[in-house]
């Protein structure tokens, strides 16, 4: 708890210094490129922080106050039926992608079918109300973008759940043994505060990095090179699907990063928002540490492919 408070204070101090010195530096080094970089970075970060905070509050509240047995009671034992129900549960039981992996692991230990738990793992960070509202604000006057994200993300989660139910093998999935809960473990309000501090500080760092990367991408990449990708709908979609893996932007804020990537097609931006909450570097690392490297490599690769196909089909049909 002490380290979390110190980390939070340090993050606030750094943000304050940057917010004060940033504009001064931009004026001192006044160039169109510096001004444009700072404008994009500030817009993405400032717009994304409120939704990031709201998302982590909801996620921490669910982790602290919603009993895990709720999931096991609501899901049918039949995997084929449990997968779409678990996927749809992401709409009403949101959580950030950082928390989705331990939640899925806990559900499996409680008896939930792995296919259903994995569907929830993918859908909860991608289609929860906070994410959909953030998307509607990032893309004003474009309700089809919100609907497209909902359909493509839910379809990806359900398809991956069904694929695991059909082709998944137990030896690929390494579940950690359940640890005895210490009597001093935080519960209730203390658990909520601890979860909020951890999730917000952890995801906030990735938001800042994502905003900086998006601003740098907009400014540093020559227009001639960008035209090679933006001129082709296929290349632009694949490029943003790859960037979603590398940038590791939190799902509550990735819509603002996608909206800032001007010149790309709506389908490419959709792919960025569908792939990011399901497959990125931090999630691959979390999955490898929780379920094993054999699982993480196979599941992440298949999820990326299904998410790209789903985004392509939904983008072609809706956008």
Describe the protein.
The protein is an all-alpha fold and 319 residues long. The chain contains 15 helices and no strands. It has helices at residues 2-28, 32-65, 69-74, 79-88, 97-109, 114-127, 129-138, 143-167, 188-220, 223-230, 233-247, 254-260, 266-275, 281-291, 293-318. The longest helix is centred in the N-terminal third of the chain and has 34 residues, at 32-65. It is globular, with a radius of gyration of 20 Å.
> What is the number of helical segments per DSSP (H or I, 4+ residues)?
15
Structural class: mainly alpha
User: What spatial form do the alpha-carbon principal axes imply?
Assistant: globular
Number of strands: 0
Strand content: under 5%
Describe the biggest sheet? none
The ordered string of helix (H) and strand (E) elements is HHHHHHHHHHHHHHH
Distance N terminus to C terminus?
46 Å
How much helix is in the residues? over 70%
Rg over CA atoms: 20 Å
- Average pLDDT level: 78
List low-pLDDT spans: 1-11, 178-184
């Amino acid at each position: 708890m002490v380290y979390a408070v110190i980390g939070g204070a340090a993050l606030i101090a750094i943000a304050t210094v940057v917010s004060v010195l940033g504009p001064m530096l931009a004026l001192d080094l006044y160039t169109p490129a510096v001004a444009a970089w700072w404008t994009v970075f500030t817009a993405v970060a400032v717009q994304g922080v409120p939704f990031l905070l709201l998302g982590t509050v909801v996620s921490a509240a669910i982790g602290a106050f919603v009993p895990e047995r709720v999931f096991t009671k609501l899901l049918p034992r039949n995997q084929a039926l449990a997968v779409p129900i678990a996927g749809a549960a992401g709409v009403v039981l949101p959580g950030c992608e950082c928390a989705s992996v331990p939640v899925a692991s806990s559900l499996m230990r409680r008896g939930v079918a792995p296919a259903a738990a994995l569907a929830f793992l993918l859908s909860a960070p991608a289609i929860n109300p906070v994410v959909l509202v953030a998307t509607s604000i990032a893309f004003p006057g474009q309700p089809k973008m919100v609907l497209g994200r909902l359909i493509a993300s839910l379809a990806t989660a359900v398809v991956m759940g069904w694929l695991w139910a059909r082709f998944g093998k137990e030896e690929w999935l390494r579940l950690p043994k359940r640890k005895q809960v210490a009597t001093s473990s935080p519960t209730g309000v203390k658990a909520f505060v601890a979860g909020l501090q951890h999730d917000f500080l952890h995801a906030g760092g990735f938001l800042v990095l994502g905003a900086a990367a998006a601003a740098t991408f907009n400014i540093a990449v020559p227009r001639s090179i960008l035209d090679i990708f933006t001129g082709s709908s296929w290349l632009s979609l694949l490029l943003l699907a790859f960037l979603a893996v590398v940038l590791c932007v939190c799902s509550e804020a990735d819509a603002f990063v996608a909206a800032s990537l001007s010149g790309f097609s709506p389908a490419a931006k959709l792919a960025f928002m569908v792939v990011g909450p399901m497959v990125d570097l931090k999630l691959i690392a979390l999955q490898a540490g929780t379920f094993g490297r054999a699982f993480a490599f196979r599941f992440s690769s298949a999820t990326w492919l299904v998410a790209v196909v789903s985004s392509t089909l939904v983008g072609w049909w809706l956008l």
